[in-house]
């Protein structure tokens, strides 16, 4: 059986009655009668009486002190001062006790033995009236703060009724006990709390003369502010303060066979407009409650059932203000069987917070595991269903807008104080941004989150907190300002382990995977990385993969406190394999044909995010023995070395060599050698030479400002074969002979190459023949060009970035077949617009039709 203790106030009042009874038993000793009788009182450990005077029917005691220990182990220490006694010696009856001052100190003990319920019959006491003008009662609980109360105590006995009144200040606590003298009549105890201000509280207890023979009943009407005031007076540390509302309680109990035990309790409680406050916390709480609940208890089974219609509301004020509320549409029951409390019903709730948005959900499952008694919980778990939205949230440089979430959360607690939590959520975010000098924005995205966390629920919480889980998204779009966006396919961040407050700082390991990282139409590699957090450093390693093959490897570290880090990128690839992996390709890379060769690269990158984003890189790329093509152009035995010395400013060197090759027009080239060096503000041309068209194109070493600003790079043309030059556009019937020298001044402007007044001159005599198979316009100049033998040839060339070109050719000579070889001097102007002229000449070669049209419409002077 489980013992149930009497209410504290009742124990105190009974203790006072016991003190009065002891005084009555000691009175014959004071009068010198039967001294051996009081000595036989069990439990009386000490007694001291200071009798001032004794007279007929009246006595005055200056002081009475006694120590009494009950059979249950409770210790009572009593001190009464200035006691006036009026008695009737012949009738062995005390008419009245008037005690000026008294102290009662109670030290509760443990029940040492079991005994059956006594027969509850209130015997007539040999005392009609007693009062204590100033009574101080103290209860010393083991390992708890003592309870104290002080006030006036008054006792009255009338026929069949006992009444006690305790008045702390202007308030009144009244207990009235009555029991008719008929057989099997119940003992009725009526308790009233009548405060000077505020509503009254009262309770009725009905208990049988033989308690284990008939159920005991309790009916109470309890204004909650009155209970709070009563607790304050008796020194109870109440976590809640009631400001309004009434609780109605009806309960029935089946008492056990031994005293202080109970077999079963059942009943219901109804709260009307209950208003409570919790003030001793950082954000004060206001709680409102209205509704009905039922309860039942047995030693191995209990149930608490919240009835439909119950409303509740919790409001927190202060910086982290929020409002939570709920209403039950269906009953919510918690069952307890053999120390295990379970509820599978739903307890709905809604939460609204300016900082954390609007949420709704329900407690779906509650489970509590008890020990020997229900107060000794060993484990607890709660599962919740939640759904909500947050319009905007920002912490430092991270900003989130339009977040919606839905999922489940589970909380677990186990002895002695371990906490675990599990969550599975779907997040939809309209916009996620990293603010700063280089802002990043993630547009509308969907995330699936699953995580578990565990820690000790005490002062070691942060030191023992450990988290693992993962977040995944089917697609992400990341943009930096107005630059081209980066699109990621299915991505996942797996937290293998994470401890935010380890012995040496935060510790953790994370795995990052992102598929199809696409920028524009470039190949979309997959990212695989492992990140390790070790105190103030974040270390990572991983690589980029194309079609499952790793093409780039990186290792790096980032110092969190400084906001700076560095990484090394390495790759070593067969060009033929790399060419197959570069799929799909953007339009710019579609013509690229990587045939043979090897490439390897190593770059070191460094960055800092504070006070602004800075980024730099150094390293080198080498291509050896490569054979490659671009559209119709080809190059073989290619050696390339790219050395990068920095990005801010851009510095480095490029060396390119090819033994042989072919332009898009089929023109062979050989001995290509290019050596460029870029310094802080200067582009240095160390070497530029290629054998082409039977001659060569080259440049002397020189320095140019960087970035280019209208400065020219003069290309020297030496011994170019005019016949091979005229064959470039592949115009049918156009041919020639002779050689040319000259200079082509190149200028880089708006991303294109321009020619500023290029000059080509013939070296001696030669021929130009334009003799197509079909007829040509009846133009004397074109007729002369059928077989023109020149003595002098000069060509001026202009070409600008938008494709506009202009040529002026001056020829002196004759055509032996035209006017008997009469000497001719004329000028030929060809102009128009041909965008991408150099690309066509070097890579594609598709410009012949345009040149033909211009040639046939050329003007002769």
Question: How would you describe the overall organization of this protein?
Answer:
- The chain has an eight-stranded antiparallel beta barrel with strand order 15-16-19-20-22-21-18-17.
- With 861 residues, the protein is mainly beta.
- Residues 1-40 have low confidence and may be disordered.
- A hairpin with a 4-residue loop joins strand 36 and strand 37 (564-574).
- Helix content is 9%, strand content 62%.
- It is built from nine helices and 54 strands.
- The protein is rod-shaped.
How many whole angstroms does the radius of gyration measure? 51 Å
The strand count comes to 54
Q: What percent of residues adopt helix (DSSP H or I)?
A: under 10%
Question: What structural class results from the helix and strand content?
Answer: mainly beta
Uncertain parts? 1-40
Broad shape: rod-shaped
Number of helices: 9
């Amino acid at each position: 059986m489980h013992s149930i203790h009497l209410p504290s106030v009742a124990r105190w009042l009974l203790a006072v009655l016991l003190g009065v009874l002891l005084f009555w038993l000691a009175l014959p000793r004071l009068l010198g009668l039967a001294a051996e009788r009081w000595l036989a009182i069990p439990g009386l450990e000490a007694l001291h009486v200071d009798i001032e005077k004794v007279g007929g029917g009246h006595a005055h005691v200056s002081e009475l002190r006694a120590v009494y220990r009950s059979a249950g182990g409770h210790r009572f220490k009593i001190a009464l001062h200035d006691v006036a006694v009026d008695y009737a010696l012949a009738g062995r009856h005390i008419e009245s006790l008037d005690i000026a001052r008294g102290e009662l100190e109670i030290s509760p003990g443990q029940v040492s033995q079991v005994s059956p319920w006594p027969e509850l019959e209130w015997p007539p006491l040999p005392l009609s009236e007693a009062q204590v003008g100033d009574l101080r009662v103290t209860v010393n609980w083991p390992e708890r703060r003592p309870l104290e109360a002080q006030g006036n105590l008054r006792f009255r006995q009338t026929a069949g009724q006992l009444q006690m009144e305790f008045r702390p200040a202007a308030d009144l606590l009244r207990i009235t006990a009555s029991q008719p003298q008929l057989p099997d009549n119940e003992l009725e105890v009526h308790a009233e709390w009548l405060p000077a201000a505020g509503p009254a509280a009262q309770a009725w207890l009905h208990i049988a003369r033989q308690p284990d023979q008939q159920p005991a009943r309790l009916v109470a009407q309890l204004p909650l502010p009155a209970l709070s005031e009563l607790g304050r007076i008796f020194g109870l540390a109440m976590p809640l303060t009631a400001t309004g509302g009434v609780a109605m309680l009806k309960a029935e109990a089946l008492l056990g066979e031994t005293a202080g035990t109970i077999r079963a309790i059942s009943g219901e409680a109804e709260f009307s407009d209950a208003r409570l406050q919790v003030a001793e916390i950082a954000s004060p709480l206001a709680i409102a409650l209205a509704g009905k609940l039922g309860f039942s208890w047995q030693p191995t089974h209990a149930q608490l059932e919240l009835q439909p219609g119950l409303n509740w509301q919790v409001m927190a004020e202060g910086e982290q203000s929020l409002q939570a509320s709920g209403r039950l549409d269906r009953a919510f029951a918690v069952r307890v069987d053999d120390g295990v409390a379970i509820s599978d019903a739903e307890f709905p709730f809604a939460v609204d917070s300016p900082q954390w948005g609007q949420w709704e959900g329900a407690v779906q499952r509650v489970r509590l595991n008890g020990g020997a008694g229900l107060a000794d919980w060993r484990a607890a778990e709660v599962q919740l269903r939640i759904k909500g939205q947050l319009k905007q949230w920002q912490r430092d440089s991270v900003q989130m807008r339009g977040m919606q979430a839905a999922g489940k959360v589970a909380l677990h607690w186990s002895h002695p104080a371990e906490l675990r939590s599990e969550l599975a959520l779907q997040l939809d975010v309209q916009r996620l941004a990293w603010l700063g000098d280089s802002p990043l924005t993630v547009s509308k995205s969907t995330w699936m989150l699953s995580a578990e966390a565990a820690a000790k629920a005490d002062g070691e919480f942060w030191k023992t907190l450990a988290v693992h889980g993962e977040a995944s998204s089917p697609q992400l779009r990341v943009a930096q300002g107005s630059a081209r966006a980066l699109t990621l396919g299915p991505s996942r961040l797996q937290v293998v382990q994470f401890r935010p407050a380890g012995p040496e700082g935060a510790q953790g390991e994370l795995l990052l995977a992102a598929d199809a990282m696409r920028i524009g139409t470039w190949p979309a590699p997959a990212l695989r990385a492992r990140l390790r957090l070790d105190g103030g450093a974040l270390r990572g390693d991983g690589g980029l993969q194309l079609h499952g093959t790793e093409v780039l490897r990186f290792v790096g570290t980032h110092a969190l406190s400084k906001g700076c880090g560095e990484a090394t990128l390495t790759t070593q690839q067969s060009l033929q394999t790399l060419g197959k992996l570069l799929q799909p390709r953007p339009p710019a890379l579609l013509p690229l044909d990587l045939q043979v060769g090897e490439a390897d690269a190593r770059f070191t990158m460094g960055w800092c995010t504070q006070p602004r984003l800075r980024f730099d890189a150094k390293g080198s790329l080498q291509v050896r023995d490569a054979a490659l093509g671009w559209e119709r152009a080809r190059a073989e035995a290619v050696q390339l070395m790219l050395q990068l010395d920095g990005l801010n400013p851009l510095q480095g060197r490029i060396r390119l060599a090819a033994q042989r090759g072919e332009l898009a027009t089929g023109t062979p080239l050989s001995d290509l050698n290019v050596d460029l060096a870029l310094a802080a503000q200067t582009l240095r041309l160390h070497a530029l030479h290629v054998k082409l068209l039977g001659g060569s194109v080259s440049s002397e070493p020189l320095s140019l400002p960087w970035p280019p600003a209208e400065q020219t790079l003069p290309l020297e043309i030496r011994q170019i074969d005019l016949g091979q030059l005229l064959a470039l556009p592949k115009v049918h019937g156009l041919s020639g002979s002779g050689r040319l020298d000259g200079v082509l001044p190149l200028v880089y402007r708006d991303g294109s190459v321009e020619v500023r007044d290029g000059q080509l001159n013939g070296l001696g005599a030669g021929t130009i023949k334009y003799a197509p198979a079909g007829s040509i316009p009846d133009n004397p100049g074109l007729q002369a060009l059928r077989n023109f033998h020149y003595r002098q040839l000069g060509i001026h060339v202009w070409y600008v970035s938008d494709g506009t070109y202009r040529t002026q050719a001056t020829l002196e000579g004759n055509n032996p077949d035209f006017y008997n070889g009469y000497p001719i001097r004329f000028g030929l102007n060809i102009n128009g617009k041909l965008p991408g002229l150099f690309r066509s000449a070097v890579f594609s070669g598709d410009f012949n039709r345009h040149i033909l049209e211009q040639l046939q419409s050329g003007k002769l002077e």
